Amino acid sequence: MIEATELSGLEASDLVLRYGDRDVVHGAALTLEPGRILALVGPNGSGKSTLLRALARLHPASSGAITVTPSDGPAADALMMKRSDFARHVTLLSQSRPVPHGLSVRDVVEFGRHPYRGRWRAADPEGASAVERAMELTGITALAGRGVHELSGGQLQRVWLAGCLAQDTSVLLLDEPTNHLDLRYKVEIFDLLHDLARVHGVAIGVVLHDLDEAAAIADHVVVLSDGRIAAAGPASEALDADLLSDVYSIPIVTHTDPLTGRLRTRAVGRHSERRNSTTERSIDP
Ligand SMILES: Nc1ncnc2c1ncn2[C@@H]1O[C@H](COP(=O)(O)OP(=O)(O)OP(=O)(O)O)[C@@H](O)[C@H]1O
After folding, report:
1. Closest ligand 1 atom to the C-alpha of 50?
2. Domain ranges, residue 216
3. N or C: more exposed end of the chain, with fewer CB within 10 A?
4. Is the CB of 5 under 6 A from ligand 1?
5. Can you count the helices (H) and strands (E) in the chain?
6. Which CATH number characterizes residue 123's domain?
7. 3-state helix, strand, coil in the chain (%, to 5)
8. Cα of 167 to ligand 1 centre, how many Å?
9. Does the beta carbon of 48 lie inside 6 Å of ligand 1?
10. Has residue 3 been placed in a domain?
11. Cβ 46 under 6 angstroms from ligand 1
12. What rounded mean pLDDT belongs to the chain?
């Protein structure tokens, strides 16, 4: 990814995803393009993680197609690709993973090189430098020798991300990547995603709960509601106040931040107005 050998995107069409006999995603379509960031937003249970996992081939598609689209070659059916070939194109930072005991940070990041090693751990000449770069970019070089079981949630999150970066894919999928991160690392991860897309041409799909973060980082926002795409487009179009109020079942107002020019959203709770009037009273003599 940081040294991705070829750029490629990922396209999904008519995807139907289910658990048992219950459909939870009903005919979704989206396109991840090299150099662009797509944010997937929507209420709890709307199907975001399932959709992302399906794009990473970790959840079976009941019907529909997923295609890897290299910029300089023929498109390939992702569901038919060899596992290691697919893993050279697409990686996923999932929401939660079991923490392996007895492994160091470096061991876990090195695991990201699995598609390049082959069955007999064949030579991976790029491996060592890819691992060092990934640890540097995520700010975990100083933790390399520590056991992963002794890390904080935020440190661990950066280790998982480093493993994905070490995989050197041209498509990066992330499910709530800033979970557990403090303010500094949150900003740094968003800066890193921005650079990966803009400088290195990585195609990024990211699930976010914070609509303002989605508006700030994404070129394209997809709003999922009950497993269906309710809106898609640039944040200024997809994050429409009436649509969001309907999808989240709570009044949501939007405005443009005069400093950044970016869209901001605010859900209006029962006490929102009262708090404002209290503040106004305490300011007014
Ligand atoms: N392992 C599972 N078995 C059965 N149903 C599941 C399973 N995982 C998720 N679901 C159901 O599938 C639907 C979509 O879940 P999913 O986790 O994809 O939503 P989400 O939008 O990512 O939610 P959240 O914002 O809470 O993470 C929900 O109705 C959920 O209850």
Report:
1. 18
2. 8-283
3. C
4. no
5. 10, 12
6. 3.40.50.300
7. 35, 25, 35
8. 27
9. yes
10. no
11. yes
12. 89
